[in-house]
Known about the structure:
By secondary structure, the protein is of the alpha/beta class.
Amino acid sequence: xxxxxxxxxxxxxxxxxxxxxxxxxxxxxxxxxxxxxxxxxxxxxxxxxxxxxxxxxxxxxxxxxxxxxxxxxxxxxxxxxxxxxxxxxxxxxxxxxxxxxxxxxxxxxxxxxxxxxxxxxxxxxxxxxxxxxxxxxxxxxxxxxxxxxxxxxxxxxxxxxxxxxxxxxxxxxxxxxxxxxxxxxxxxxxxxxxxxxxxxxxxxxxxxxxxxxxxxxxxxxxxxxxxxxxxxxxxxxxxxxxxxxxxxxxxxxxxxxxxxxxxxxxxxxxxxxxxxxxxxxxxxxxxxxxxxxxxxxxxxxxxxxxxxxxxxxxxxxxxxxxxxxxxxxxxxxxxxxxxxxxxxxxxxxxxxxxxx
Length: 356
């Protein structure tokens, strides 16, 4: 029994140590405005190693679940340029050079929120097939045939490789007659939070308005309701973002509109990241030296915490230590420790077992 527990705990610790806290990952989903409708230009194809796509669709000769320099198409194979393209560029422009931003985009035009609902998606797809509404199924197949499941898969990879910082969402045109749409949006978010075991207080969802000058701008009251229903939901204004008048409708943004809109998503996220930063340490250098002894005491007394709390603390250790922490098992104490050096001194952090 102890051996199995030790193996599981060891695996969790190694996974935690393998995470890159400077890799910020966002999970995007929705319909056509999230997949992007602006024409791709040569400048759009220019990549920056600090902006990555976590490939969610099976196309472009790239492997699903792997990271690549971000360039359109960011979603399915026929995606163009949209919100996530300009979001990512703005983020790396404003964040420190040590931060890399990645986006996994699961979006298909013209589809209901039910496509992303784990309890409704199968019947939704079947009903569409029964009606002969199948033009978009090829894109769903690129996402593995299940949009919700693909978001979860990308989320699990994101947690292994970096840190999920939030969700980017834009959808609603297809559901303009759905009275309970805000509640359904919240349900999908809540399901993703639960399945990915994320802290909702640290994982916001940014919800963009529909094009105000488009055919469905009047539905933005419902978009606001959706953002208000979610405690960590945030409305992104589309005011002043031009819409493109097409032959049969006006629903999509122009390139200029996407740029303004995507940068607003980024500005809100940057604001939220800033609010999450710890308060600056105003203690003097002498006080810091004194506190280092207290830190040693906290480490050795950490047996009062359970192993889950200990594992959650590992990224903080990694952030302050000059050397990579190492995992080892002390046979004498029959306990698992993380060992690291700081300021020339060696410390160890008990993960399992208890003092005699």
